[in-house]
Amino acid sequence: MELPIYRSAIRQFGQRVGLVRDHQWGLSTPDPRWTVDGLVDHVTAGQLAVAAALGTAPPDGQTVDRPARWSAASAAALTAFGTVEDWSATVDGPDGPVPAGEVLWRAATELAIHTWDLARAIGAPDELPNDLLAHVLDQAREHGDRWFTADRYAPAIPVPGCTEDLIELLARAGRNRWWRRG
């Protein structure tokens, strides 16, 4: 399984969390449901859910420091994935039972998308490593009909003939690559 790709996605999101300034937590993001604060909380909760689905207890204590909460949650998820012996074993995913490997790929895909969301919201670099994009896009193509549902993402944006992985991945999630806060 591609645990290095997941680690890369964790690093990318964590780097952007580290760039958020105090005055930016209330800014809007490309997903109109969230401010920067809400997005980071959403992704942090997702990492805790991954850890729980794989049988790892959440970190002890609740800190109000968002970057520290993110670090603890992502460390718990990484630890949980590190204990998986059979990637085809069924675990409880967000939409019901799925193979553990699919949980990894879905988490990596969501991290990549939300890294871009966070970067655009705070004006940070929004490019992602090519290997991360190529791998998660392959998985998004395979599982997108289940992952990119209307209750989770905006409708997909058609990009016929697209040759840029980031644009295609974002379009699948209903994101406009050139989004700017209004």
TrEMBL record:
One of its GO terms (molecular function) is metal ion binding. Residues 7-119 form the Mycothiol-dependent maleylpyruvate isomerase metal-binding domain. InterPro entries: CHP03086 (IPR017520), DinB/YfiT-like (IPR034660), Maleyloyr_isom (IPR017517), MDMPI_metal-binding (IPR024344). Pfam families: MDMPI_N. It comes from the Bacteria. NCBIfam families: maleylpyruvate isomerase family mycothiol-dependent enzyme, TIGR03086 family metal-binding protein. This is TIGR03086 family protein. The lineage of its organism: Bacteria, Bacillati, Actinomycetota, Actinomycetes, Nakamurellales.
